[in-house]
Amino acid sequence: MSTLRLKVARRVAEADGICSYELVSADGAALPPFTAGAHVDVHVGEGIVRQYSLCNAPHETHRYLIGVLREPASRGGSSAMHERIAEGAELDVSVPRNHFGLADGPHHSVLFAGGIGITPLLAMAEHLHAKGLPFTLHYSVRSAARAAFRGRLEQAPFASRVRLHIDEEGTGLDVAAALSDCPAGTHVYVCGPAGYIDHVLATARSLGWSDDRLHREYFGAAPAVAEEGGAFDVRIASSGTTYTIPAGRTVVQVLADHGIDVPVSCEQGVCGTCLTRVLEGIPEHRDLYQTEEEQAANDHFTPCCSRAKSALLVLDL
């Protein structure tokens, strides 16, 4: 995937533990266009690549704006961004990709953001407003101090469409109420912690919403204790070579040991960067990226975390 060399033109503390970074071309050139919901891969350094959603208006061509939450259990990405990346720093950044785009059509949209999940939904709100399409944005945070981009939302031309829910102030989100008076054909878009997303989607389904109108993007896998699973084999279709994946190691790790590079980013089955076609065998899906229908097809899996139900998987590599 092609990358851009971008400079941090501005860094702003948006809330407790959250900073925004404005990325621009070092020579002032226009940046590749993006659509609402898109993200970029940021090469933080030392082999660390992390994905961050673009949260500026999609019509802007002079900058990319990302928001980064410092995770207490950071695996190196968010801590590096907060500790080492200052204004003036240069970063390798991928061209934008979008796995969380807005559905086509002039329908009403309800946007649900939990915490740092506000970032892609900011771009969606900017786009929907610019197109004159109806929407409501529900933004949930635990405390007022954690409400990133609050000033921007309060001053936005679509501020009347924003509902801020602050748990500590007793104004937490009531999903059922938020969906109660939506017109026919409304689509839901939700991003945030896994538990928040699951709650929004489960509530919508309980109210009769069909999955084709429910769109989500996870930022991280929910903490869970999962069985490692036994050993299995993977065969590379192009070479016919077979490798054994032992318990406690991932497909990506074993293949890397043998010089086979599978692009990865989150390594949690969230981002879809490593999604690989399965030609034979049945995967044991452990990702949050694919829908249930996509997982049931068993023709793709995420080798960063998923394993196998069958003794062998043949991969289109």
From TrEMBL:
Keyword field contains Chaperone: no
FAD-binding FR-type domain: residues covered: 1-103
Domain of life: Bacteria
Domain 2Fe-2S ferredoxin-type residues, every copy: 232-317
Record keyword Oxidoreductase present: yes
Entry keyword set: 2Fe-2S, Flavoprotein, Iron, Iron-sulfur, Metal-binding, Oxidoreductase
Record protein name field: Oxidoreductase
Organism encoding this protein: Pseudoduganella albidiflava
Gene assigned in the entry: vanB
